Automatic annotation (TrEMBL), chains A, B:
Source organism of this protein record: Fontibacter flavus
InterPro entries for this protein: NUDIX_hydrolase-like_dom_sf (IPR015797), NUDIX_hydrolase_dom (IPR000086), WH-like_DNA-bd_sf (IPR036388), WH_DNA-bd_sf (IPR036390), WHD_NrtR (IPR054105)
Highest taxon listed in the record's lineage: Bacteria
Coiled coil regions in record: none
Name of this protein: NUDIX domain-containing protein
Membrane-spanning segments: none
Span of domain Nudix hydrolase: 14-158
Amino acid sequence: MQKDESAELNLIPQLTLDCAIFGFHDNSLKILLLKWKGTEYWSLPGGVIHQVESLDSAASRVLKERTGLDEIFLRQFHTFGKVARYDGNEIKKKLGHLIDPSLWYERAISVGYYALVDFEAVFPNPDTLSEECRWWDLAEVPELLFDHLDILDKALHALRLELSFQPIGLNLLPEKFTMPEMMRLYESILGKKIDPRNFQKKILKSGIAIRLDEVKKGVAHKSPFLYKFDPERYEEVLKEGGLFFI
Amino acid sequence: MQKDESAELNLIPQLTLDCAIFGFHDNSLKILLLKWKGTEYWSLPGGVIHQVESLDSAASRVLKERTGLDEIFLRQFHTFGKVARYDGNEIKKKLGHLIDPSLWYERAISVGYYALVDFEAVFPNPDTLSEECRWWDLAEVPELLFDHLDILDKALHALRLELSFQPIGLNLLPEKFTMPEMMRLYESILGKKIDPRNFQKKILKSGIAIRLDEVKKGVAHKSPFLYKFDPERYEEVLKEGGLFFI
């Protein structure tokens, strides 16, 4: 975050936000990353906070800029406030051709948000300092700049906790999905195998998903039934909490 | 937060922290509040963040100043970033004799922490702007300044979530306690009745509490057994997670 920019643009000084944007595709959890111009370095998308916007609005704005999406499922999960979140020397070495480290604040505190988005609906869009914005498989995430690996870890941890208190999937699965697809979403977030029979029993008992009179075609073996979410019941369970999977 | 103070004292501008400090006494959950000098207005304890200290260190410092305690169970739970968290006119009217609202930033973002402390060990200590620091029963909390009622609500919500993932009590109960005492701690945090037999079964199954060969004397009816925490097992369960009470 640059000092002059902060005063000129009427930003809150020394405060930024970073976003872990998760999507689900090909049975695995993906994260949206930016590649900084003229480098091989990647980071999470982030942004500044204007004096006239709330933290939540700033996060929605950044999400919209990077994905094209409005009305995203977005949660603040932690504020990162260590003294040395980034190292002036490291910035100079890696990003010196892009930014002048002497114009950066020695310290910035960053509010972390995570988002769950519909992979198919996203048009990844780099920001002014980056040349590429694309999905990475969580298992293949490259080295990240600053403390962004720590931010990603904590986002994933928060998402896992959230999973045990509320239904997840409405923003991540296609409109019609099979039970194995939904289970693999849960498995990819939790990073562990789930017992399929218990999973199906819990989901059906909760009433959040309704079985359709349709099967998924073109898959090997037996064609699995398709399900869709019951939006009203989903909303109710979201309010009540209490789907314990971990 | 005052503008001149921020520059002179080398503080992070427009960023503060607020602490919901919980204690347990007489079977009810208490919260530590400050009464502002020459007013009838109360707020949560809070503080500034120095350029050279992390957010967590700043929170520990404030906790130490208000309670006299080190090594407190302390959790960051949410950052409050609405544009109008406080109203200049309200400050002028209510606190104009204490602070000059024109020297305050129009906006500050506050990082919320909650703490669980040993009620008996705390020596409540007002800050420079307050004349009293004392415990309030949660059911009797007065009107609070700024958005502090919202902060308290969210702290309590976070504490309730935490309760279902990890054991709580080591910082809140006396060294030796009865099962009904521990249950009332849980009930007072959750704000609802718990089935005593299920509660005792879950606690004993988890192994976090050990029954002593002692009973509590001076209580009506049958003298209940005393328990103490098994610190090693407590620590293990803390790491594993998974005591579901809500």
